[in-house]
Queue: 4 jobs
Job 1
Amino acid sequence: MTSVFSATDLCVSISGKPILRNVSFDLEQGKILGLVGESGSGKSMSALSAMQLLPEGAHQIGDLMFEGKNLTRATDTEMTHVRGKDISMVFQEPLTALNPTRTIGEQVAEGLRWHQGLTRKEAMDQTIDVLERVGLGLGLEYGLIDRFPHQLSGGQRQRVVIAIAIACKPKVLIADEPTTALDVTVQAQILTLLKDIVRKEQMAMLLISHDLAVVADMADTVAIMKDGVIVERGPTCELFDNLSHPYSKKLFETSNHVPVPRQEPVDKITQPLLKVSNVLREYPLPRASIFTRRQWHRAVQHVSFHVAPRQSMGLVGESGCGKSTLARTILGLTPPNAGHIQFLGKDPYSVSRKDRQDLQLGIQAVFQDPYGSFDPRHTVERTVGEPLHLMRNELSRSQRKKRVHEVLESVGLSSADANKYPHEFSGGQRQRIAIARALVTNPSLIVADEPVSALDVSIRAQILDLFADLRDRLGMAYLFISHDLSAVQAITDRVIVMNAGRIVEEGPTGEVFSNPKHPYTRILVSAAPDLNEALRKRREEENKHTH
């Protein structure tokens, strides 16, 4: 098979610190190479090297060959003609990869106009085709092409980034964690889409992921990376059947990790801690013209459920189904258009300001992207202690400091970390800081919105263990919002399944996942990636081809 792109003895250092050491790999036409490893192992730096987008202060040696040309010697002008047209990249964080001031349509069309010299109309026609290919066809009817990135859900933004990457039909596609922020059904669709594009267009693809199940399903060959070195590589099934490096074995074990189950799940509700009754939340859609009536999008449609003290409630559903909107309404950030919320017997939207502050002490949030929810100029001590302003008359400065140090230690960090800044921590450590901030007021309910979606397998296992430990040790309740069904299964007593703003199924977690009644729940469960199942299917395929 023809090698389209190859890296040989690639070494990268930043300010003298080695990041990549003698990394070599080949990308073959119509084949997918999976690059696996934890945060900080050098996966993304390998991708940035291939695109010649290394940060300032980086020093690179080694060869990057594409169609007989060494890209390490290419000028910036030459690389602008290669990027997007011949080699494209799907970045991990779509919100930072997209331009907030330009519409989705303009951003997809930009590459087509630049590389193919199309007119505005021709580029827009192709943009519609590309957006339909990545599953955004329905959204086009609602004016999605004229929306800005912040007006889309996480899954929709990721599809737009993929649309930009594949618009010019590149020969090499580098996908850096392309499905991290996606729910299981969208992830399954996007992975199938990427696989089809690779086969049909005979593209070469480098798939970077920390999810072994995704890599086992997608990649023809796999390379495992640790501390900037590829420690093991080989054809997918052969590699997973004969893992020899201790690090590879540890990754395999932690990917199947489940926290110690609770002895007695809280399923019966006597006195609810949180009561959501018939909540409706809708948003105005942009008008087609000043003469048309304004249309409204119903994000949450007459939703009702209860959470008991100490209960762990899961909330699952696709991107855009209303999970995060419902979370914001529960947290007191956006009032419902109809219906009621009661927390500790009180409606946060109808009480006095003082009573509302008291209620806010008892309910805290852990957000999906901890880095985005921290002020980079504030120390960890100030960030974690921020919710304590609600108790400023009750706690002295020294008591606040002591409380911050206690919660940092309770989530597995040290008091010395209090004086550092968010950028000095890894992704997993930042998520621990986010959990510490939620714990600092001793809440009775934590709303965790996708708290493990961006974490690699070993850190995800640690954070799930931490959630289980805090739940059992401190007796707090969770509303655990996630598209990661295995995480929900591991940590919750009951689960609610949402689709298009409505609850379609609710019940004990084990029961709902083992015997789903609603067709939508069945789709969700069947789409969830499973490492052992992916390897079994791949072995069956290989056996068919050999016989």
Job 2
Amino acid sequence: MNNSVLWYRQPAERFEEALPVGAGRFGAMLYGKPDCELLRLNEDSVWSGGPRERINPDALTGFPQVRSLIMEGRIAEAEKLAFETMQGCTPNMRHYMPLGDLSVKLTLPQGEMTDYRRELNLETGVYAVSFRIGGALFRREVIASNPAQCLLIRLTGDVPFDAAAAIDGRDDDYDSNRINTYDKVPFLEYNGGSGAVNGIRFACALTAQSADGWLYSTGNTLKIDCAREMTFALSVRTNYYHPDADLAAYARADLNAALPRLWDALLHEHITDYQALASRVSLDLNGETDLPTDALLKAVQDGGTDLLKPLLELYFRYGRYLMIAGSRPDSLPLNLQGIWNVDMWPAWGSRFTVNINTQMNYWCAESCALPECHLPLFKLLERVAENGRRTAREMYGLEGFCCHHNTDLWGDTAPQDLWMPATIWPTGGAWLALHIMEHYRYTADAVFLRRYYLILHDAALFFTGYLTENAQGQLVTCPSVSPENTYRLENGESGCLCAGPSMDSQIITELYRDVLEADSILQMHDPIAPLLRDQLEKLPKPQIGKYGQIMEWAVDYDETEPGHRHISQLFALHPAHQISPRRTPVLADAAATTIRRRLSHGGGHTGWSCAWIANMFARLHDGAQAYDMLHKLMCASTNPNLFDMHPPFQIDGNFGGTAAIAECLLQSDADGITVLPACPPEWKTGSFRGLRTYGGFTVDAVWEQHAITNITVCAATGGVCRLSAIGQFTVNDAAGNPVPLRKEADGFMAFDTVPMGKYTLSAR
């Protein structure tokens, strides 16, 4: 059975049932009613306004006072002063907004509707609806074409029908919605913006064509009458990308370039572009089903564990689809909802939340062979670093750059919200910067690394000044928080601000190591390197607390919420590699205890948190527990359209879940590659193709009854391949010649590769 199609026997009644299309910069949610296709439109730069000046003018004097109060144990006073002197002014950054609603209403023949089907094909990136009325077949296809930079809607019928298209849906947040004619062709032009100084302006254009129908307009509606085939095309441009352009003319130009071409050519171009990315990876867990997607999900939620394999195959492919659809090299990165938001005031502003959610969006980009889709994050990081240098200087009197727990399309780095568990956290920029070396480790792209080295350097430079010595002689952050969690003091009071939360020390450890590694690779001879080495020795290491858990704070406090969704103290386990079953078994056992304690108190109750725990269990090589968390993700946090539920909808859980499936099958770190490190017992037989690892290797594997039969390794840049897999193997190159295989002292197998070489390991 084909586990590459989301399909349904009825239209969507609500957002959580609608299906997404996208081309990175723009996208839509589609509902599929027979007589009206509703497209909830998004463009990734349509935000609520321009850049804001939000740095608190009292921060420079308030910061040392807050630090002193924390070091003296006067937490309540410190938190009160922090909110007076350090919070952003205003507390809120700009927020994401939808573009509008496009409705295409059809006048169809009378009669009973049969054979309805709504689908999203993950092999082609094409959305389709089909049904019959009185034996006549009607079909629509929708693509968000990256090559054409247009949203294209193709409608066909066995008998003639009429269609009318109009745009609305932003309340009063648009300026113009009317038909204009150019060269005798009617265009619906829908223009507007936020109204703020230096805000976002957009221009949306819609037109249509039909070989056998009559195209005309009434009011602000485009109409085609008496046609068996017709195509509507929509384009949108904003002043974020084109600050000096005539946006309406630019949008019309997109349509003028696309619509003279035949539909088949546009469709072929879209599929070719999409499949160049989508076809790199495949997964087969030997799961079969003929159920519609919503019925499949419901069956799993009702206890049909035999159907979890085909559901997870579909979910994995869907995660890669969402990455391709939502993040392209010339787009903004994925925010909390990607390009699929319907609310003018979305939850948490649908911003870039950088105390895990934005980073989680990109956990699967490299391992699942979509490095191009990772690139928008680095463009945003350039803005974050630029603004963060000013924030570091004006808030803290320090060099380098910092960012707190949110940012927006302008790269705002001042504290966001008035929420003590999250707001005063200066480590968001450092975590974002870690993606630089992660991209390099998969691609070995030294040009990329050199371009972004200064950002790595400046992220570390900030903390060389921000760290302060505690009573034990350790260097710690202060003030800071363990993201979104609260601790309980011995006197019964609770607190959030602290000195030295474990996640901060772990992130800074990773950051300093990344700078030192990049400095060595690029031969920068950076003068900061000796200071980083010295400070690394003084950073706190993960500690085991009274419950056998990894401590979340420098003091072994109890949490006020033991089942908290964040497990920040396990950053060292995932996404970092500081804790591992192979190198730090005692800490790995404590990490497992930490997770079990969270779960026993109701943890993992949000989709992204559940996905993070699945990744953590995979890193602990516990396939059974990782599988249980993936099962929980499907049962408790997945909508009928397979969108993640926080609740409400947040797309990070989709990407976290996709990454977790990949982590079960293939992992890599500085030591080497591990094949099937956490393959669940239920996945007895299967295969994957195209997953990627550190060192620029691409790996395929086949296993039967839990025994690996075949591994294929493609080496992009050559070098030594170190690989761990259960079994005895022989290695041959692409010509069939045997390749020497060395057994290393740590248990890894090693063999030499050449650039673009292909090697097959066969079980013996």
Job 3
Amino acid sequence: MKRRAILLGVIVTLSMLVLILRVAHLQLVEGDSLATASFQQRLRLLSTPAPRGNLVSADGVVLAGTRPAFVAQYIPSGDPPTGEWINLLAFLMDVPRESISEAIDRGARNVPYAPVDLKVDLSQAEYTALLEHKHRLPGLRVVSRPVRTYPHGDLASHVMGYTLKISEEELQSFGEISGRVYENTHLVGKVGVERAAEFHLQGHDGQVRVEVDAVGRLVDSITGRTPVPGNDVHLTLDSDLQRITQDALETVCDRLQEGLDPLPYDPADGNYVNLWDQGSFRPADWRRPGRTYSDATSAAAVVLDVRTGAVLAMASHPGFDLNTFATAPLHLPGTDEARAWAQEWEHLNSVAMGQPLLNRATAQVSAPGSTFKMVTALAYLEAGYSASRTESCPGHLDIFGQRYGCWGVHGPAVNLHTGIAQSCNVFFYRAGLASGIDGIESMARELGLGEPTGIVGLGPGEESGGTRPGREWKMEALEEVWYPGETLMAAIGQGFHAYTPLQMANYVATIASGGIRYRPYLLDLIVSPGGDIVEQTRPEIVHELTASAESIARVQRGMEAVTAPGGTSHRRFWDYPKTVPGSDREVAVASKTGTAEVGSGAWRMDSHGWFVAYAPIDEPEIAIAVVIDHGGGGSLAGAPVARTILEAYFGFGDVPRADDLLP
């Protein structure tokens, strides 16, 4: 019995000695580090998000800004929140309790002790309720966070792009590229100017040090670094011209779908009037009244400054409301807001709904039809052929054992001038054979067709190159030789050609400028929060045509004749030249219509309606390219949009301004 007592005493003594040694070690050896760890758990360094820089139009309209939104956050403590805590919060915010629990668990796994967003953009009622019950919700913090706002909804939506939550890949790369600190809660630009200017628009977050008790209640906060807003980005877009261009595309598409000629008609004068003027409507197809262009649901237009390459307007229809992206992607899974966002995202990407997110001005390519004929004309003249050389057009050309049609009978003496004005296919079949596909392809390359323009202001990968057909292209793409019959199709802008509206506008601007091709740009100025200019885009000449000034001038005169009596778009521009209000300057328009065939046989669809133009003729300022998908002819579909743009730009008539057109 005595031996047992002694053994027990030894065990107790040894145990006490171990405990004393452990306590001594913790206090003397690890005391400082443990105290620091305890202090760090009590003090949290939290980020204060910086406002994103504004996007501002050339005429000073804020197209994208920021607004404050209240966010409910959970600051983790040592113990997870109780079921009662979660139930109360779920009730007050109308959020499923499972969504709250999963968000907190996910946050603990990914970034321990970091704040977890539970609901973004609280309503006033939710904000008030959370404040009233704050004493029952330890660890809950309601903060104000700047979020994107787009005062004009869908205005220039494809140009500006949108922001979404940063991806894992972006989280790793953006910080290295920009030198900024990015966190997994950041919204970043994904496409458009928002992406292209991301590192200018994203500000520098501030910091605040907060003290919490053992259960996560906020005890005190000390402001550290003040957030610095991002730079403002000033664009080249004119907000009025942009709004009018967008509305013109939508209006023309709607009227074509109803089977109407888009331009109103004044029976008293016997002439067409402006797009929004009062008048009656004629059938879109006078040969088949009642015919509708039901597939004319999408379109695009680009307006460039001929003198610099600045983009004055860029529109793609259908569009989308940018405010959809402000906070919806941040809501917790399982909530009504998250489900609504998922449905909206599906709608925005749906082919059946017209893919509203697709920027058709830069990413969609199609054959340009007869708007390509100025390329063939330049190649023809540079090959040494005379502009006065004539061809006979009986309405077709029989060659290579096949009949190639023309849209009309243009008579026995069609030269380059009348060939452009009347868009005679037969003349350009002959001109194409004379020039050869090598000459046509070379001239198209000089004019920037079939490759990205390198536009300044869009995100990476947002501009399609298209297809500029030729011998090498066909062998590489199809492993086939080039056939002479394909040269005929290439000469009139059919066949393998596929270009974007931006490329087409830039090509026309190059002709208008006398052969100088500029790089298009959307970004004008980058301005710091203090008002200093950080960067400014300067006009950049990319190429100067090798074609002679005489050849370019002859093609220009052919385009001038398109809107003159006898030209394919004269009925749309019957009242031009026009005098600019308040001056004695007359504005005449040079243009070209194009009807690009789509499909063949049983798969034949309504043609795309292309129209390109520049004005004024004497001192060109703007170049325009318009395409109405499946809208029929270029004069029917594209010209009304271009006319509306010109009326707005030069101030002719009673043209509505952007504020009048806003919903």
Job 4
Amino acid sequence: MKRIIGYLKPYIPYFILAFILIAIRVSSELSLPNLMSEIVDQGIASGDMAYIWRTGGMMLALAFISTAAIVLMDYFGAKIATGFSRDVRKSVFHKVQSFSGVELGKFGASSLITRTINDITQLQNFLIMFTRIIIMCPMYMLGSIFLAFSKDVTMAVIFLSLVPFLLAIIILVSRKTIPLSVTIQKRVDKINLIIREKLSGNRVIRAFHKERYEEKRFDEANLDLTNVMIKLQKISSILMPAMVIVLNAGTIAVVWVGASKIGQGALEVGDMMAVIQYIMHIMMSLMMLSMVFIMYPRAAASAERVAEILNTTPVIVDAEEQKEPTASRGRVEFRNVSFRYEDSDEAALENISFVAEPGETTAIIGSTGSGKSTLIQLIPRMFDVSEGQVLVDGVDVKDYTQKDLRAKIGFVPQKAVLFSGTVASNIRWGKEDATEEELVRAAEVAQAMDFISKKEKGFSERIAQGGTNVSGGQKQRLAIARAIVKQPEIYIFDDSFSALDFKTDANLRKALAEQTKESTVIIVAQRVSTIMNADRILVLDEGKLVGCGKHRELFDSCEVYREIVLSQLTKEEMA
């Protein structure tokens, strides 16, 4: 929570200005009942029209001052709230960018989206309410109580005695609503998760005719949220009527005592009217404060959820001192590497050792779940090893800054991801200042020029969010072009040719061999034909390295590799 409050420090001058404007507004509005009392008791009673006009003019001037103060106060309040939410949202976004797979798995994508958008919006709305009500209402209450005592002590004491009852009502309601507010945000997370899955898996849902199932699933989550919201509103709705009953009872008592005093000549009519006006100010202030108490639990829950992100220390951090490379450019070495996912009892990788040299192609093959993708994600430090070392150019990857390490790597993930923009902008993710010639060269190597050239706008053709307007093979080729245009020391292809036909696959590998003569190439593949000519093939089985060598050597000596080859290739192809 302290971390969240810290974001308000730059806006302290605006808070001071808002405070001054609120003070001007409150003093102006609290002066109006007193002037009205004077008009009733002195102007109307004596028939002095000049006094009435003069005092009425003062009241009108105060009303204009109050209006101007309200406008400026709302302006500064909005500036504080929107600036605060902008700064917090920016910090949360940057923090999430630094998260490793461990933190992303801990929070989940849907929860991170809810916290970044919905929770920060809750804080923004509460802050607007804070500058308009929480600062203003105590001023109104203290000023009204003081002025009410100056008019008549008995009537003021009657009303003041009601305050403990009002506070008790507010505290009781708040204790019930705070846990429900936390639950609401969790229910919003769940709805966000279902909607994300519905949108991303829309084709699968339709293909398996699961629309009704998804509708039922969403309806259940939506109903859960609705029920909690209704319960919260039911409890919150008790607050206002209870306060109105107490306040109206106090008003009746004040009028009763005031009327008795007027009959005895101990109180002027205008003074009683002024006291009633002050009581109304107090009543309205308490009612507005009750709205804040309704909003506070949800804002507090949101603040805790946002602070949880900001206070999370990523598992993967840059070393304080970076070491200089000691080996050739692009050399990758695994030394007795073992890795276990958090909260997992079994190791995903166990005692892996190998060297990938520049100018060579190292291929990784194995059955599904053998740890192929996990292994290559340790090179750019998507995860950190549990035991052993991963070295790039003779330096432990932990001794690089993440920026410098990943600058050496061109990574093509198993699931090709494109971003909304153009073909050119997606390829330029690899190199921002890439020239037109470099884009063409990268696209040619990736075998993407054939479909890019057929597009009406070529490299300026729009790419939809997630690349939904291009095929799976086209997405893979653009993702490969993105890595090629970077011209890195190390190329990592995580099963990046699976959507390509055999001819395109062969052409791409041939062009890639020319492009990467001086670089280290690491390929994860399911198809034996893709990796048969690799300089080194690593065979993984249940997280263990069971074979390392060339195709013919492994076929003769490694049972796991032989089974994979026999399941895919004919005798003629093997020959």
